[in-house]
Design brief:
It contains 15 helices and eight strands. The protein is of the alpha/beta class and 403 residues long.
Amino acid sequence: MTMLDGTNRTDLAQAVLLDDPEFLRAIVERTVQALLEEEMSAHLGAERYERSGERRGYRNGTKPRTLTTRVGTLELLIPQDRDGTFSTELFGRYQRSEQALVASLMEMYVQGVSTRKVAAITEQLCGTRFSKSQVSALAGRLDTELATWRERPLTAPSYPYVWVDARYEHVRVDGRVISQGVLLVSGLRGDDGRREILGVAVADTESAATYQEVFRSLKARGLTGVRLVISDDHAGLRQAITKHFQGASWQRCQVHVTRNLCGQVALAKRASLAAGLREVFAAPTWSQARAVAGRLAEQWRTSHPRVAEQIEEELEECLSCLAFPAEHQARIRTTNGLERLSQELKRRTRVVRIFPNREACLRLVSALAAEQSDEWVSGRRYLDVGLLTEEHHDLAVPLLAAD
């Protein structure tokens, strides 16, 4: 509908919503509600109770819906039609603008984009500029939401499998650029067999104290019933696992082991070594795997004695998964379950290169982890936990002693 001065009322309402934060919420709510009714009339070709030969349908009540704006939360009643074909253009357009705005603000804080650049982006998207204080306030609310998510109670009755992975990012701390560990912990829910991101942290992961603090926090939030922890080999991490998950087993990531061993031989020989390791890991029982590993070690003893020694002494750490259901083994022998999240982190942090501080790094990791966790929890079952019986727990290989 067009006003006397030629201004489209939908555009005017959006301008009010986006550019005048002092406008009273109640007035905005009434204005938007009136626009929704006008959209429905245009959609049906007739006003409410109007008899018209051009009518294309009939109203069928309303559906309550809230719309969060910068002047407050609007309580709206979205008109419905009998055929279910009505979709409000104003609501969708406003939501897209808000989502784009929030995304752009997040980009500044999680990717180190300057305030000036974000101001230009928001002006282009929404027709308005935001001050640095407004941007900081919005980011502060985002941080509060992410902190609440990181500290949420873990509600599953048990988490029999826990995966731990770490990657490293460059972060500016006290004026210096240093390497900081991004620690990711996921778990299998013992009630429905779905995965969940349990925790994230950004810290100096060279110390066992860092891992111990993460595990202590997870247990305080409700992590229990852990039977197997899957991770890469790290002295501090192993110490923390041994201390906090006594009675559980430790599975060293087979992919990481393969990479480490293949990195010690010439490029032309790596395919052969990798094939031999796959044969070890494909063995159906612990004894068969040990026999294959022994033969593989002999093959490499003359040319690469150190590799042979590691095969004999360290591959046993990669075989704990064999004590658990065969249907589970492909997914509990590595930390690859976290690979998608790690790849997304890598894609985003490649743009950032250097985070301005730990908080910015943690913000990005938390936002992506929360999104991934929601997808997992609401998605399909990852493993059938009904196959996991006490028998498997009793057969599990015990954790190695702390160094």
